[in-house]
Design goal:
The structure holds three protein chains of three kinds. Chain A is mostly helical. Chain A has eight helices and no strands. In chain A, helix 5 packs antiparallel against helix 6 (96-126) and helix 7 (139-172) runs antiparallel to helix 8 (177-203). Chain A is elongated, with a radius of gyration of 20 Å. Chain B folds into two domains: 2-121, no CATH class; 128-267, Immunoglobulin-like (Sandwich). Helices cover 41% and strands 21% of the residues of chain B. A five-stranded mixed sheet of chain B has the order 3-2-1-5-8. In chain B, strand 6 and strand 7 form a beta hairpin. In chain B, helix 1 packs antiparallel against helix 2 (40-75) and helix 2 packs antiparallel against helix 3. The longest helix of chain B has 36 residues, at 40-75. Chain B is elongated, with a radius of gyration of 27 Å. Chain B starts with a helix and ends in a 6-residue tail after the last helix. Chain C folds into three domains: 34-208, Cytochrome C Oxidase, Chain A; 212-252 and 274-376; 379-551, Cytochrome C Oxidase, Chain A, CATH 1.20.210.10. Helices cover 64% and strands 1% of the residues of chain C. Chain C is built from 17 helices and two strands. Chain C has helices spanning 2-19, 27-32, 37-67, 76-112, 120-139, 176-205, 218-250, 274-308, 315-329, 344-370, 381-404, 406-412, 416-446, 452-478, 494-497, 500-512, 514-527, and strands at residues 261-262, 265-266. A two-stranded antiparallel sheet of chain C has the order 1-2. The chains are: A mainly alpha, B alpha+beta, C mainly alpha. The interface between B and C is large, with 105 and 111 residues. The structure holds protoporphyrin IX containing FE and copper (II) ion (2 copies). One copper (II) ion (CU) binds next to loops of chain B.
């Protein structure tokens, strides 16, 4: 059971049933957290869909956003998933330096994404969009947009923080492959959510 | 451990459960437990309820009888000892209840409930159309007048005293709309299709004697259909909490004979006439 | 962030356990900021008892108003606020705390053979979040406009019309009181979610050796299913609460449609949909009912097995029934919305799907009953409550048949039939289960027995009072008596209205019966008869350790060798076999 390595808790693990089909509890909990959080995002997006369907008109997104810019944003985030995967692989190999570097690279990708999102928000707000007003049409769109991308952004922001901590721990050898992997799971989840958010707000 | 006390508890609990069963069933005979019914689909609703009373009553009575019997039988002194059931009996005791419950409940909803439900939500072409507007804490009904058309309601024209529906003086459709505060008038035996709306919060257009209940939702028009079967005056009691005044959000559905209804309708003048 | 922290604390907690099983030093670490699941369990129980004084007190107050209008010195504004707070407090701060959090915390690690919860620190945090949550909930009575008054369901627009900024005010209770209500609920959700994660982790990963899933006591199974359901459904309420807060304070229009006019004031909102909230709310709300009810049923199975001296009937089918209930429970939320203006086709679907749930519930009911077949019943107080639970599950369950049938619900929706039904399920079933559990585990908690005479008094008062009170409310619902009404005047309701004084008298009986319980609880803690390690001759793991239970629960963790219910063993069938007995 690989959790033994992380918890350094021979006694308890030895005494109990091997975990759930050999999965460590940290990973299991991360999965449960992710499922719960996914349902939270799911609820928000379902609510968005509910409003979208019952709305009479909906703003023309090509006027609100620059699709090129959003594509770059999305690309950045997806790239950061790739660097994260590399970091996980490196830390599995025991290559602490590479693990540190790639985790840091992922954090930088996250920061870049946040920067672009901040710019986009600024752009919209500057043009008069608010939680309760939307110069391009249906105010509900603005409310959902700010609420959901804001909520996602807060996930990215806390993700960056977790990445920095993980990188630091990996460097000092405090965080083994499992720690990096857990962080990776979270980060991939945040990226995946973005794909849905992206799809809902910019494409459909 | 299993002393005389145990036997006392067994008898006490078991007779109490039997007593509770008898009182509960008996209450249906002693109490006037439901309001009379004065609508076509309402009889269907009552048929549905009666069906469930028998189905549920059967489960209630049998369950409590079995429980009380077991308590006395296995709770006193010198009781029989446990033997594991055979797999077959065990499966029987699982599949039995499953089949019974699914059959009884789904049969009821499909055979009895479904058609009644459709009745309530199907608009028939020659229905009288009535527009209901709810606001804290009042019911307002509206009839389209001679032109058969409802005028638009405009929030900006709302005035509690002068114009509670926000009708537009310049709207030709609105001119002859008949607006009645606190009451609805219906002819007996004729279908009425309701458009229900609300200005402010949720309310529910609930007329127990007509077995009608439909929420009034701001931003949405909901519907229900009623065919009254008896002349009378039936109370509307709001059935969705709408503020402290919820309890006094009353109104009346006046069901009249066809002739009386026609007379009443003729005596009404349009809101802007 | 929270996750990183959780991982850290999980680590720390377990290292601590691995190294030393001694008691933590000092009163504060031991009893106040304890990470020991047993102490935390008791803390939850005490908190629930405290809140129940408020919640039940409120119910008696408005019961007086209902039975003898005008005698209770109460305004309509206060009435709706008090009903709302009674409901919220009872569900989330009494039943959830006592049953899900309190008894769950105490029993799960002991029954699966673990030293503690998977994340002891998180566990402590969960409890300490409840403290401000409770305080905020209570304090909301004293702000401008009074406590939240939109019902425990908090349906917008009423709950969204806060009177802040451009948003018009829907009612006095829609102001600050509703905001505090949401805040307290948010804290509750955070705490409950962390608790659920802890339960799942503990049950999946810290089971003693040999404790395969199908060897877990049914109590553990029900807590497990309940925790999963909670984790899957609470996020929907979280989303709804966030959007409601934004509507209230930032002028968004998630739930507020165009064209609102509130007491003559036109609102600026555009395009929201009030029904959306109802969908999100009941996506949580219905599973939440099972989150509360299932563990009570699980405890009843354990208690009935111990006092009927035979294994419960149909362990396997019960587990399957639980899983099916959980699954179906997630897809039937619309049965609360038959008259809401939802598409009538959806109404039909929800009606048909809901009625399917009666099948697995019938299996549970039959299994409970059949568990008494050829038993040797011992009528302890704990057992009496478990037997009362069987009756309440049956009576409450068949009420569900009426409400789940959309056509019949046209008559019952928002009447006292609903009130009677849900009180039987989430009031009586949960509380009889909780009391069965408390009388059963009290000797393990405090090393002393509760007094049986006071216990019996408690049982008879509670059971007679609650059964009569809530069954009569069903009849009032048949009579069309609408709920959340300060006073009644309609003609059709007069026969139902005549039953109101009787209901109130039975309410006094049911609530009064809690006085001997409170006294018994605290008196027995210090003065009760000393208990041995296994006073009930029960077979699950919690009875294999010493009483009082040492920190870390066992010197050496038990190794499980068989089924949880080793009753009716031996040649005469009157021996029992502990779950960790050598083969
Ligand atoms: C003897 C004790 C109790 C009495 C007499 C009592 C009485 C009542 C009554 C009469 C109402 C309806 C008021 C109305 O709709 O106007 C009510 C509402 C409610 N009660 Fe109780 N109750 C008791 C215990 C409980 C318990 C144990 C629970 C646990 C869950 C509970 C949960 C609720 C809820 C959720 C509501 C709905 C509040 C709302 O409409 O927003 N009650 N109670
Ligand atoms: Cu109302
Ligand atoms: Cu439900």
């Amino acid at each position: 059971m690989n959790s033994t390595a992380v918890t350094g808790h021979e006694a308890a693990t030895h005494e109990s049933e091997p975990g759930f089909y050999g999965t460590s509890w940290q990973k299991l909990m991360m999965w449960w957290f992710i499922i719960g959080d996914a349902i939270l995002f799911g609820s928000f997006l379902a609510a968005y869909g509910f409003s979208r369907i019952s709305a009479v008109n909906w703003p023309d997104r090509t006027q609100m956003f620059s699709l090129n810019f959003i594509t770059v944003m999305t690309f950045t985030l997806i790239t950061s998933s790739a660097t994260m995967a590399t970091a996980v692989a490196a830390s599995r190999r025991g290559d602490r330096k590479a693990a540190f570097n790639f985790t840091m690279a992922t954090a930088v990708g996250g920061l870049a994404f946040l920067g672009m999102q901040a710019y986009e928000w600024y752009h919209l707000i500057h043009n008069g969009a608010r939680m309760d007003t939307n110069p391009w049409g249906a105010p509900a769109f603005g409310a959902y947009f700010f609420a959901i991308t804001g909520f996602h952004g807060s996930h990215v922001a806390s993700g960056v923080l977790i990445l920095l901590i993980t990188a630091w721990n990996a460097k000092r050898g405090k965080s083994g492959p499992e720690g990096v992997e857990l962080t990776g799971l979270y980060w991939h989840f945040v990226d995946l959510v973005w794909v849905f958010v992206f799809g809902c707000f910019y494409l459909i | 451990m299993r002393s005389q006390r145990g036997a006392v508890s067994a008898w006490l609990l078991s007779s109490l459960l039997i007593l509770a069963t008898i009182l509960t069933v008996g209450a249906f005979f002693v109490l006037k437990w439901r309001p009379e019914v004065a609508s076509e689909h309402g009889r269907g609703v009552d048929r549905m309820i009666t069906y469930i009373i028998f189905a549920a009553g059967f489960i209630f009575v049998v369950g409590h009888l079995v429980l009380s019997t077991f308590l006395v039988k296995f709770g006193g002194k010198g009781t029989a000892a446990y033997k594991p059931m055979t797999h077959k009996t065990e499966m029987l005791f699982t599949i039995g209840p499953v089949v019974f419950m699914v059959a009884v409940s789904e049969l009821g909803v499909l055979a009895i409930g479904g058609p009644v439900w459709n009745q309530v939500y199907t608009h028939k072409p020659d229905d009288l159309v009535v527009d209901i507007t709810a606001k804290q804490y009042e019911w307002i009904s509206r009839y389209p007048g001679k032109d058969g058309k409802f005028g638009r309601k405009r929030p900006d024209l709302f005035d509690d005293q002068e114009n509670p529906l926000g009708l537009d003086r310049k709207d030709p459709d609105a001119k002859d709309d008949i607006v009645v505060r606190g009451a609805v008038y219906l002819p007996v035996g004729k279908g009425a299709w309701f458009n229900i709306q609300s200005w402010d919060v949720l309310h529910s257009f609930n007329v127990p004697v007509l077995r009608a209940k439909q929420d009034a939702v701001p931003g949405l028009t909901t519907h229900t259909r009623i065919v009254p079967t008896a002349v009378g005056r039936y109370e509307i009691s709001c059935a969705e909490i709408c503020g402290p005044g919820h309890y006094r959000m009353r109104g009346f559905v006046n069901v009249k004979s066809e002739a009386d209804f026609a007379k009443w309708l003729k005596s009404q003048v349009g809101w802007f006439e | 962030m929270a996750i990183a922290q959780a991982v850290e604390t999980g680590k720390a907690g377990h290292q601590a356990h691995g190294r030393d099983h001694g008691h933590p030093a000092g009163f504060i670490r031991k009893y106040i900021f304890s990470t020991d699941h047993k102490v935390i369990g008791v803390q939850y129980l005490l908190m629930a008892m405290l809140m129940s004084v408020v919640g039940l007190g409120l119910s008696l107050w408005f019961r007086v108003q209902l039975a003898w209008p005008g005698k209770a010195a109460m305004t309509p504004e206060q009435y709706v606020a008090i009903v709302t707070m009674h409901g919220t407090i009872m569900i989330f701060f009494v039943v959830s705390l006592a049953l899900s959090s309190g008894l769950g915390n105490f029993s799960i690690p002991l029954q699966v053979g673990a030293r503690d919860m998977a994340y002891p620190f998180l566990n402590m945090l969960s409890f300490w979040i409840i403290v401000p949550a409770s305080a905020i909930m209570i304090l909301s009575f004293f702000v401008e406009g009074g406590a939240a008054a939109g019902g425990w369901t908090a349906y917008p627009p009423l709950s969204a019309l806060s009177g802040f900024g451009k948003v018009p005010r829907g009612s006095p209770g829609s102001g600050m009181g509703q905001t505090l209500w949401l805040l307290a609920m948010a804290l509750f959700i955070v705490s409950f979610t962390m608790g659920g994660l802890n339960y799942v982790a503990t049950i999946l990963n810290l089971r003693a050796r040999g404790m395969s899933l199908m060897r877990m006591p049914l109590t553990v199974w029900t807590y497990f299913v309940a925790a999963l359901l909670g984790l899957l459904s609470f996020p929907a309420l979280t989303a709804a609460a966030i959007m409601l807060l934004l509507d209230r304070h930032l002028g968004t229009s998630f739930f507020l449609p165009s064209g609102l006019v509130v007491s003559g004031q036109q609102a600026a909102n555009v395009g929201g949909t009030p029904l959306l909230f109802q969908h999100l709310f009941w996506f949580l709300g219905h599973p939440e009912v099972y989150v509360l009810v299932l563990p009570a049923i699980g405890i009843a199975f354990d208690v009935i097995a111990a006092f009927s001296r035979r294994p419960p009937h149909g362990y396997k089918t019960s587990v399957w029934a639980l899983l099916i209930i959980a699954f179906l429970g997630m897809i039937v939320w619309g049965h609360h919305m038959f008259t809401s203006g939802m598409n009538p086709f959806l109404g039909k679907y929800f009606s048909i799907a809901t009625l399917l749930i009666t099948a697995p519930f019938a299996v549970l009911g039959v299994n409970l009953l059949a568990s008494l077949w050829r038993a040797r019943i011992r009528f302890t107080t704990s057992m009496l409550f478990a037997l009362g639970l069987i009756s309440a599950v049956g009576t409450g369950g068949i009420g569900g048949l009426f409400l789940a049938t959309a056509t019949a619900d046209l008559h019952f929706h928002d009447t006292y039939f609903v009130v009677g039904h849900f009180h039987l399920m989430i009031g009586v079933v949960t509380m009889t289960g909780t009391f069965a559990g408390i009388y059963y585990w009290f000797p393990k908690m405090f090393g002393r027995h509760m007094n049986e005479t006071l216990g019996k008094l408690h049982f008879w008062g509670t059971f007679i009072g609650a059964f009569a009170l809530f069954v009569i409310q069903h009849f009032q619902g048949f009579g069309g008596m609408t709920r959340r009404y300060f006073e009644y005047s309609a003609d059709y309701v007069q026969p139902a209205l005549a039953l109101n004084p009787a209901v109130t008298w039975f309410a006094f009986l049911a609530v009064g019966a809690q006085i001997p319980f409170f006294f018994n609880f605290f008196w027995s803690m210090f003065k009760g008869k000393k208990a041995e390690a296994n006073p009930w001759e029960a077979t699950t793991l919690e009875w294999t350790t010493a009483t009082p239970v040492p920190h870390g629960n066992w010197e050496r963790l038990p190794v499980v060798s068989g089924k949880p219910y080793g009753y009716a063993e031996g040649a005469n069938g009157d021996a029992h076999r502990m779950q960790n007995a050598e083969a």
